[in-house]
User: What shape does this take?
Amino acid sequence: MENLYFSRKIMNFKELFQFLETLQKNNSKDWMDENRDWYHQVRDDYKFWLAEIDMLLAEVDADYYSTLPGKAINRINNNLLYHPNKPTYKDHFGAGLDKQPGNSDFYIHLGINECFLAGGFYRPKSDHLKSIREAIDYNGERLKEIIQQPSFQKMFGGLEEDERLTNAPKGFSKDHPHINLLKNKSFVAYRPLSRKQITGSNFQEIVKETYLEMLDFRRYLNKAVSV
Assistant: This one.
């Protein structure tokens, strides 16, 4: 039952990382079958923590779209049908909150090699990308204003670097005043995290402040794709 989540112990993130590290040294279905109880314990504790974060963010954002932990958390299995060379299991726990269909989500990534909080659209489908570019064409100054805010720059350093077009996208002039934004294939705010931050006592506060800092950015994108 979802309402039993808050009767559980405080999330042990050190054990989460220990599980992931051990899994990657033994990345096979046989090992997972033998240690499935451990996996379920770590996963369920993480889901309980996500339920707490879901409630916390709902308190600070009146427009927050509540996401149950079972819907938020990603599968730990890699999709071997499309990526047959990948290991059987991922090296991280990923979860998306504020997951209103069609909108950007607030993503939490806790892994062996990298940990981060992110939000926006990573390589969105073509119709969403087209809508975002049209919004930039109409009012790119607002997006620039958001991402150039000192607090946004301090936390995220601008937008996350990703593959970009070499030339102007179809239908836009190479001399467009917002050509640098229009060439983007992704629109993502990204904050790397250390394990010390995650295992510290104020991790929930870090999550909350990150969510709030990227809220105007995500609202701009969500409005663009909903028009």
